[in-house]
Amino acid sequence: MESSITTSITVHSKFLPEDCKIACPEGTTILDAAQGNDIPVETVCSGKGTCGTCRVLVRNTQVPIPNAHDRRRLSDQQLAHGWRLACQHPVSEDAIYTHPVGVRPIRVVESSGLGKIRLDPEVQKIYVKPAPATLHNQTADWSRIQDELAAVAGDIDPTLEALQNLAELGESVDDGVTVVIAGNQIVSVEAGNTTERMFGMAFDIGTTTVVGALMDLVTGDEIAVASGLNDQHVYGGDVISRMSVTMRGSEWVDRLTEAVRSTITTIINDCLARTSVAAHEVYELTFVGNTVMEHLLLGIDPSRISYSPFVPTIVDPVSATAGELGLPVLSSANVWVAPNVASYVGGDIVALMLSTNLGRRDGNVVAIDVGTNGEIVLQKGKNLFATAAPAGPAFEGAEITQGMRAASGAIERVHVSNGSVDIDVIDNAEPLGICGSGLVDAVAELLRIGLIAPSGRLLTADEAKDIDPGLAERIVPDETGGAFILHESKDQPEQAIHLHAQDIRQLQLAKGSIRCGVNVLMQHAGLNVEDLDEIILAGAFGSYIDPGGAIAIGLVPDVGPDAIKAVGNAAGHGSRMCLLSLTSRVRAIDLPAQVDYVELSAVEDFQEEFAIAMGFPNPI
Ligand code: FES
User: Fold this and answer.
1) What are 171-213's pLDDT values in tens digits?
2) What is the rounded distance in angstroms from the CA atom of residue 199 to the CA atom of residue 197?
3) How far is the CA of 388 from the centre of ligand 1 (A)?
4) What is the C-alpha separation between 292 and 528, in angstroms, rounded?
5) What are the angstrom distances between the C-alpha of 64 and each of 5, 29, 90, 354, 582?
6) Is 409 near ligand 1, meaning CB less than 6 Å away?
7) What is the C-alpha to C-alpha distance for residues 442 and 452, in angstroms, rounded to an integer?
8) Where are the beta strands (DSSP E) in 526-571?
9) Whose CA is closest to 234, among 43, 1, 477, 511?
10) What is the pLDDT of residue 432?
11) 56 CB under 6 A from ligand 1?
């Protein structure tokens, strides 16, 4: 970073497309200035200069001299046109900064195709008609209700809020009330018979996005689903960045906790606004997430997970109330947070195992949640093995020269044939960059044609001429070892999208990490590729990646495209299962103890395994 805040001189500048004028102390980075004024300049690396997502076009001032981070993350054309990394330069007086990419709505996988869920919820409603109060029977309201309830539900304590509800009912108590039981407590008492109305919400808290589903606990139907970018995104794109922020002190833990709770609150309000369900009718919330996200949801400092010996505060399931977390449903509503397996194999993977029936499926199966932290589970018969592979953010388009998340304008598919390149762009928009699935496709296609060698080297234009003269013209030299032009616009040359040699290297590092995890688990279980029956890809990236491409780049073993199954938001489905079915919840609680966790960094020949896994397979 070029400078820090050293004076109290105020600098004025403007951000586009918001047309927002700001004033900030001299020395403030462009990124900090934007964040301080709610201008959504994107960041994945939290200002370290490594992700390249914070790029802005600098105008109306002297464009700063590019530093090493700018040169690594921006193309020569972008640099020449005045693009710079916002986290690397201080704000200049009267400058205009344009961020055409910004924080676009990310494509989110809200559902899965994992089928119906058995219905035996933890939440119960029981209608009781107490003996009426008279001058001869001055028994307290609660005692009279308890007398009726004991026969069907035993002795259950009410929360204070339930007693306050009861008091508000007055004489109508004698006409009958419905008691609501959740988390082994009576959480509410309602007038009359309301047993037909019973609701809960199931959440999947991802590092990038949060998905919540409002569920009818009487019918098992999903009534509404909503999702949003995790408000913690301004603190970095992965759990390592988030934990580095929490290490600044407890007030930073609070900020991250407030951020994720604010996202959840927005999702709850969004779901309720679209239905006739009242906030006080939501009696239970279930949450699954990685271990860091679950800690932060609960306001627990996750910092210790980030340094040796990488220990979380808790891996067991946690119960709390919505009121304790400040969530806008019934204050006594039960909050259930899924158990984790280990520091980097969290409740989201427990939910994935639950929803895909791992441990009880036929055959030998590998399940992978591809993300910045790749989580991998291997089923061999009834045995389960798991590990975590730090893939980094390349699959989310970060640390890729012209990478971006899977949002409008991202190249998501690439097909190369007879000298031409066809691309699919999300929303059919003007291409702005390339996202993870597009990156995998592009590299898989160039490997297939032979323009990328199995070592990962991009051929020069001269070398490529004999293979395909048309495509050879798309290979241009640059200081990173060349680039392949995926898309170019004659009118706006600065809008060209290149796949650079260093991007191929980043993909090799990311896929090498995940494949190394798969290989290590297979060795641990004594399995060869021929022994595998199925590969399950979960999560947003897993839903959009082409199975053939995943095999072509060696992300997964070659089991044939038909044996690769994308299951969408399997973690979200597992969260719904825990909400709708006590049986499923009990299984989720039991699952971590059945998993043999393998720590990759403790594997003796890890570096060798990783180097092997980084190579690309020979094209067939
Ligand atoms: S935030 Fe600037 S490069 Fe990542």
Assistant:
1) 999 999 999 999 889 999 999 999 999 999 999 999 888 999 9
2) 7
3) 25
4) 33
5) 17, 12, 9, 52, 59
6) no
7) 10
8) 534-538, 564-566
9) 43
10) 83
11) no
Q: Is 49 in the pocket of ligand 1 (CB under 6 A)?
A: yes
pLDDT exceeds 90 at position 257: yes
**pLDDT reading at 6 higher than 60:** no
pLDDT in tens, 442-453: 999 999 999 999
Q: Is 591 in the pocket of ligand 1 (CB under 6 A)?
A: no
Q: Does ligand 1 come within 6 angstroms of the Cβ of 74?
A: no
Ligand 1 atom having least distance to the Cα of 73: 3
pLDDT value of residue 110: 64
pLDDT in tens, 496-531: 889 999 999 999 999 999 999 999 999 999 999 999
> Fold match between 10-98 and 124-191?
yes
Provide the pairing of β-strand 334-337 with 282-289. parallel
Q: What is the pLDDT of residues 552-581, one digit of tens each?
A: 999 999 999 999 999 888 999 999 999 999
- Closest ligand 1 atom, CA of 85? 2
CA atoms of 228 and 269, how far apart (whole Å):
12
Q: What are phi and psi of 605, to 5 degrees?
A: -105, 40
Ligand 1 atom 3: the closest Cα is on which residue? Answer: 49
Cα angle 293, 557, 377; round to 5: 35
Residues 402, 406, 407: CA angle, nearest 5 degrees: 95
Q: What are phi and psi of 339, to 5 degrees?
A: -70, 160
CA of 111 to the centre of ligand 1 (A): 31
Element holding 210 (H helix, E strand): strand 209-216
Q: How far is Cα 128 from Cα 525, in angstroms, rounded to an integer?
A: 55
Is the Cβ atom of 85 under 6 angstroms away from ligand 1? Answer: yes
CATH number for the domain running over 199-347:
3.30.420.480
CB burial of 343-361 (b: ≥16 within 10 Å; e: otherwise) equals: bbbbbbbbbbbbbbebbeb
* Alpha carbon of 31 to ligand 1 centroid (Å): 8
pLDDT tier at 117, thresholds 50, 70, 90: confident
**CATH class of the domain at 124-191:** alpha beta
The best mutation among 53, 78, 89, 103 to test binding of ligand 1, ranked by most ligand atoms within 8 Å of the C-beta, falls on: 53
Q: Ligand 1 atom closest to Cα of 87?
A: 2
DSSP letter (8 states) at residue 598: -
Each domain of the chain, given as residue ranges in start order, spans 10-98, 124-191, 199-347, 357-566+581-620
Whether 45 is in the pocket of ligand 1, judged by its Cβ within 6 Å, is yes
Dihedral sign computed on CA atoms, order 554, 555, 558, 561 = negative
pTM to 2 decimal places? 0.82
CATH number attached to the domain at 10-98: 3.10.20.30
Distance, in Å, from the CA atom of 378 to the CA atom of 537, rounded to the nearest integer, reads 12
- For the CA of 86, the nearest atom of ligand 1: 2
Between the CA of 461 and the centroid of ligand 1 the distance, in Å, is: 32
pLDDT at 100 over 70: no
Report the C-alpha gap between 603 and 608 in whole angstroms.
Answer: 10
Span from the CA of 474 to the centroid of ligand 1 (angstroms): 28
